[in-house]
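Schema walkthrough. Field components (list of strings):
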Amino acid sequence: MIWLDTLVQGILLGGLYALFAAGLSLVFGIMRLVNLAHGDLIVFAAYLVLMGVTLLGLSPWVAALVAMPLMFFIGWLLQTAVLNRVLGKDILPPLLVTFGLSVALQNGLLEAFSADSRRIPAGPLEGASLDLGLVTVGVMPLLTFASAVLAIVALNGLFYHTALGRAFRATSDDAVTAGLMGIEPKRIFAVATGIAMVVVTIAALYLGMRSNFDPAIGPARLIYAFEAVIIGGLGSLWGTLAGGVIIGVAQTFGAAVNPEWQILAGHIAFLVVMLLKPRGLFPRAVD
Amino acid sequence: MLLQTHGLTANYGQFRALFGVDIAVAAGECVAIIGANGAGKSTLMRSITGVIRNEPGMVLHRGAPIGALSSAEVMKRGIAMVPEGRRLFPSLTVEENLQIGGQVRKAPGPWDLDAIYDLFPILRERRRNPGTALSGGQQQMVAIGRALMSNPELLLCDEISLGLAPVVIRDIYTALPRIRAGGAAIVLVEQDIGKALAVADRVYCMMEGRVTLVANAAEVSRQQIHAAYFGEAA
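Field assembly_structure (string):
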């Protein structure tokens, strides 16, 4: 029974990792850009939500709703003012720029909020649990997982059933020909990064409510997100969810064996998948 | 004039591909641009559509300088392109490939999904297929339909018969009069001189980055074409 419990906890934890990863997956799928500041942007958004709660007295949910358009704008601005200038055939400049942004964000947050551990207060939800008969699950992990599934359903709907999604896919296929259709690839990229930042805000909300955070934890979140994207197959959103779940399950099983093995087990699962399926579980046909 | 190039030059790095090209297209007109491989025809198309950027005054649309605009801005002015090699979007179905052509600019006019499917009925059957799962000829039909979806004033067709079987080329050329009847001016870039002359009002011949002949398609002689095409005295 303990193993079933561990499995369920792992799957639910995977929801959090999928939320970390969904924005990264979207941006990579559209513009082949790996944003090394992704984890730090999650932490930044967590502080934004925290400020909404502490300074404005909002509930975390409302604070996240308020933070979403703000984060969309930040993503749009980041892409327009910085990342669009370095995107090109060479993949190194965007890596260097986002790495620099990551360092700057961490230090900026350290200046603004100190190194103290913070948490977004979630009230009675924090400890609430649901008895499902065989297993008991926390309400918060359940909400996280449900949000991850919803976010991925929404992103997939956007990607495959809207005019904007059509423009995303066309630009990803062939930016020059997309230009001949009247589409400005750089504007499409800016909107995509904006949307990724909205998902980042959701990830930040759960990150901040479920555990303590401080300005230095971004890079580790990036690693989990990156592993989830790679396991799932580059550019596949459902694959990203599967990747998150695999890391989550590996981590909870690792922790069940020995608490020191939690993080290590996640990374080992990643390496095993890479050995067996170097292109990930659900690689897109085109690439 | 609907479209004019004025002393248009273009370079690929050190290599100069166009040396002061002047062409003009009137509204509703069908103009053929012929020339051998490497004559600069595709470079001319890429310069007009903003894939290659130039000085503003080198390309004029209704007298306004558009030489320095992006492809998207040029397209929004009503200049649509059927690119060489068709360039369908592999991630999109046939129908989505068509829809994306009229997604940003949709001028009033005869062309919509139904009209395209009437023009090329086979596409209606294949509309749920990925664009790249079609035969070359069908892909060319999608590429033409995609460019028509915005109801352009000017349709640039770059090598639409290249690599296709004669019977397929005939099907595609049969559609051109119907496209003209819809009101769009057409620029046909072709290596197949006979096909081009049969549908065009006027013909430009290019060689080594220069225009070597401008003529009325109905009156031009084989000798004139031969001289302009190969650069030999007739």
